[in-house]
Design brief:
Helices cover 27% and strands 33% of the residues. By secondary structure, it is of the alpha/beta class.
Length: 209
């Protein structure tokens, strides 16, 4: 989905997210790589919420999976970017290059599914990605999903990646406010168990019904 510009951003080139409605923000690659000290409390909270075997959908370069493995927790990252998966491997994070909606290992057996760094809005369909998360979970498992605290509701957006000289194709995403986590979870066959707000980011624990 992200394509070559995403891979170049992971390699160090400055890249931006352009919104079709106007404006752009810098792609938070340093956050994804785990280089932002201000994000440490958030990442710590994510790790603390992982109970048993964990799969992360859209793991990027694998900072969370690497930490889980170091803590002795069985974990696997899934990402469509070969470069992201390669970087994950350099951190010692098991990761596979695959579509999160395609065939995956141990469907129905994971204790925790992670949707972090905006991935609850993947492809502009948060209900679909949460249903996929539910399918991956074992009985009694839960999905740990990050929601937006600065926006409310579900807002589909068209975005693209761009540098100062090149632009990628438009693709669908969604911003998903923490205010709609309960309703969205119910639609996806999950139930909201707990919410933590860490700085300007929110984590919800969604249990399998």
């Amino acid at each position: 989905m992200f394509g070559q510009l995403y891979e170049r951003a992971l390699a160090g080139e400055r890249c931006f997210i352009r919104y079709r409605s106007g404006g752009r923000t810098e792609l938070p690659v340093q956050r994804w790589l785990g280089h932002c000290s201000e994000d440490q409390p958030f990442d710590d909270a994510v790790i603390a919420m992982c109970d048993g075997s964990t799969v992360e959908l859209g793991c990027g370069p694998g900072r969370l999976i690497a930490r889980l493995r170091k803590a002795g927790i069985p974990a696997l990252g899934i990402d469509r970017s070969p470069e992201a998966v390669r970087l994950a491997h350099t951190l010692g994070a098991p990761a596979m290059c695959a579509d999160v909606f395609g065939p995956l290992p141990a469907i129905g057996s994971w204790q925790t599914v992670l949707l972090i760094d905006g991935n609850v809005g993947l492809e502009g369909d948060p209900e679909r990605i949460l249903r996929r998360s539910r399918d991956l979970l074992a009985d009694g498992g839960h999905c740990v999903a990050e929601f937006d605290v600065q926006h409310s509701g579900e807002t589909p957006v068209l975005v693209r990646l761009e540098t100062d000289t090149e632009s990628g194709p438009w693709f669908h995403w969604s911003t998903v406010g923490i205010d709609c986590a309960d309703e969205l979870a119910e639609r996806a066959g999950l139930r909201l168990k707990d919410v933590q707000v860490i700085g300007d980011r929110a984590l919800a624990s969604l249990g399998r019904v």
